Amino acid sequence: MNYLIQNAVAIHSEEVPGARDIRIRDGRITELGRDLTPTPEHAETVIDASGCVVWPGLVNTHHHLAQSIMKGVPAGLNQGLGEWLSSVPYRFWPKVTPELMYHAARLGLYELIRSGTTTCADHHYLYHATTSPELEEAVWQAAEDLGIRLVLCRGSATETGSHEGMIEHRIEPETIEQVIDRLDATRRRHHQDGPNAMKKLVVAPTSLIHSSTPDGLKAQAQWARQHGLKMHSHLLEVAFDEIQAREKYGLSAIDYAESCDWLGPDVWYAHLVHSDPHAIERLAATGTGIAHCPTSNCRLGSGIAPVIDMQKAGVPVSLAVDGSASAESGSMLQELNLTWLIHRAVHGPDATTLEQVLDWGSRGGADLLGLGDTGTLAVGKAADLVLYDIDQPRFAGVHSPLMAPLMCGEPVFVRDSFVQGRQIVKDGRIGDLDETELTRQVQESVAKLLADA
């Protein structure tokens, strides 16, 4: 369908400052301006955006959708990462069936969409020696059903190594041959090339330091680059990564990653909280990016990633939610709001600007994921955009309406949302999703997970 969005309070577009109208044709933005009028020959649907601000869709570069049914597990509420991994995700991982995975993925994607997200990179790591392929297919299906772009970062572990969660729960890792074969099957079935793809595959071993081997990492890097796929993993979320890298390999964590061919403009890492000046220099020099997850890092007491220093050095920065078992809000807008605030607390009031943070949460993520046709509102770009309704009491006193959702934070009301020109949210409803039914299915999933575990 073709659309004409009119009368917005404001539109975030560097190309046409002051624009209030957007024309969408064949999935792309064809015009930005003021006082645009319908063109009957193109059968446009007119949407009155009065009371709304329009942003590019947010891009979440690191998530764990499976954790959407593991929120607030009592045993892990006051634990750091190592103990929490064992008490929460690895405790339940072997009990997640394809059906439970589908309900968890739908919930996680629902939460992202209602906060303004149009692209999710899910670091799906529920793979072991005997994993059923239906578990992964449930994630792809959920994304297709809700209409969101999905970048599936295919996790893997080829040894238990120093991974406490895998050791305690006796999870048998895959062989590197299984990893490559299964990756290739997914690539052939789902991956789409190009900057406007709805589905992408990323090679994403779950941990470089704790559950992979140097040879396995090199093999995955070689295979990824052979097929033009990007690469992702966790790194330096806690100081234990650095300790283990030096004990096991005699190298800093960042130098170990580089020795295994895991730095480069096609690589980004989640967290990087414990990056020292040398790590930041190597990240910047190689064009390696970060998925900054401030809520999860606060929740688990991991620390604050030095993204201000990274940005100054030239490291590509993006924002991410991480899993809802350690970022229970499940909201990208929460991450933008906290990013804006937390670095000011450390570095002063000029450390972050609203515009910079929104850029990290949209264009920055799109570029890292190879989705350069998205992330900004400009003529020729894919029509991934969100209408936030700010015609409400809590926003009424805001003097800078365009940035009201970021400044005020949750709760927000996404009135309409588009992905590749397709309307996935209309008047606050996500497609044909029944919220009451989703709630019931997730509650039943949680009960089943507890019973089985």
Description:
The protein has 16 helices and 18 strands. The protein is α/β, with parallel strands linked by helices and 453 residues long. A hairpin with a 2-residue loop joins strand 3 and strand 4. The protein is globular, with a radius of gyration of 21 Å. The mean pLDDT is 96.
The beta-strand count equals: 18
Q: Which regions have little confidence, pLDDT < 50, spanning 5+ residues?
A: none
Q: Biggest sheet, in brief?
A: 8 strands, parallel
Mean pLDDT: 96
Distance between the termini: 47 Å
Which class of secondary structure composition applies to the elements? Answer: alpha/beta
Principal-axes geometry comes out as globular
- Radius of gyration, in angstroms, nearest whole number: 21 Å
- Estimated share of beta-strand residues: 15-25%
Across the major sheet, the strand order is: 7-8-9-10-11-12-13-14
Classify the helix fraction into a percent range: 25-40%
Output the number of helix runs.
16
Kindly list the characteristics that best describe this protein:
453 residues, eight-stranded parallel β-sheet, six-stranded mixed β-sheet, 18 strands, globular
Present the secondary structure layout:
Blueprint: E1 2-6, E2 10-11, E3 21-25, E4 28-33, E5 44-48, E6 52-56, E7 58-63, H1 81-87, H2 89-92, H3 98-114, E8 117-124, H4 133-146, E9 149-154, H5 164-168, H6 176-190, E10 199-203, H7 214-226, E11 230-235, H8 239-249, H9 253-259, E12 267-271, H10 277-286, E13 289-292, H11 294-299, H12 307-313, E14 317-319, H13 332-347, H14 354-368, E15 385-389, H15 404-408, E16 414-419, E17 422-426, E18 429-430, H16 435-452
Parallel strand pairs: 1-5, 2-6, 7-8, 8-9, 9-10, 10-11, 11-12, 12-13, 13-14
Antiparallel strand pairs: 1-3, 3-4, 6-15, 15-16, 16-17, 17-18
